[in-house]
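Dear H.,

Thanks for agreeing to be a second pair of eyes. The structure we're designing against is below in token form, covering all 249 positions.
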């Protein structure tokens, strides 16, 4: 093949590859994509979720006051907040040591990417996010009854009766079935960290699965995926997962 034709063909192939990369919604955007400017409502949208600024997060939580503090998890602190629209939300603020910043950034982007595409009554709704400099926040619908673990153990809440437990179990199962069914984004999603603290409860005790930072998108057409690292919480994941290093869906 003449040199000129080879050069033109390679250029066309590179251009096509770049177009596919930019059109693929699962490709993470460069750092510049996450640098945001202040805005007034309605906020910008990214895959169906609103984009907030640090100023809006401070306003919503009264500068992250102790009165608005809900709890603390592996990702960071969670605050109750009120958006400029008057909507009540839960705001998760990422607070990780420098050695875990890269891991936290990955989980943050996975959660934004996945939850922005999901819509099911038994999955927590992501209202939006904030990525301002190194500051990272996730904004969720506010769940009045907290998490399942507190109710099962009677921590600050009366222990649940059996009808409520059954309702929560069925709701969580429906949420998982939706994730595994491919109807969400065209391919199955494995949560990888399902536990009682990640099942939130609405006013009517409707169960909603949360915390998708470790979620895995299964390769298209595959029901088994080999993994090099065990992720999740000991005591909750399938013991077989640690021995065979496979994810089944």
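And this is the sequence the design step returned. I haven't edited it by hand at all.
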């Amino acid at each position: 093949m003449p040199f000129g034709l080879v050069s033109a063909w390679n250029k066309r192939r590179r251009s096509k590859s770049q177009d596919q990369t930019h059109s693929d919604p699962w490709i993470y955007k460069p750092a510049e994509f996450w640098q945001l400017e202040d805005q007034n409502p309605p906020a910008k949208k990214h895959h169906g979720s609103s984009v907030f600024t640090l100023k809006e997060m401070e306003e919503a939580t009264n500068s992250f006051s102790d009165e608005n503090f809900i709890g603390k998890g592996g990702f960071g602190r969670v605050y109750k907040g009120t958006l400029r629209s008057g909507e009540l939300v839960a705001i998760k603020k990422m607070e990780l040591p420098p050695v875990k910043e890269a891991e936290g950034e990955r989980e943050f982007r996975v959660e934004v990417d996945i939850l922005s595409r999901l819509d099911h009554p038994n999955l927590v709704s992501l209202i939006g996010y904030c990525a301002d400099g190194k500051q990272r926040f996730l904004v969720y619908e506010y769940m009045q009854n907290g998490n399942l673990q507190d109710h099962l153990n009677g921590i600050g809440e009366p222990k649940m009766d059996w009808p409520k437990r059954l309702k929560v179990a069925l709701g969580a199962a429906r949420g998982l079935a939706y994730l595994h069914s491919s109807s969400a984004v065209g391919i199955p999603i494995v949560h990888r960290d399902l536990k009682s603290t990640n099942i939130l409860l609405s006013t009517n005790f409707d169960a909603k699965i949360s915390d998708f930072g470790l979620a895995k998108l299964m390769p298209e057409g595959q029901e088994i995926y080999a993994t090099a690292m065990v992720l999740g919480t000991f005591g909750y994941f399938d013991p077989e997962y640690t021995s065979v290093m496979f994810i089944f869906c």
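Two observations from my side: DSSP finds six helices and 13 strands in the chain. Residues 148-219 form a domain with the Transferase(Phosphotransferase); domain 1 fold (CATH 1.10.510.10).

Warmly,
E.
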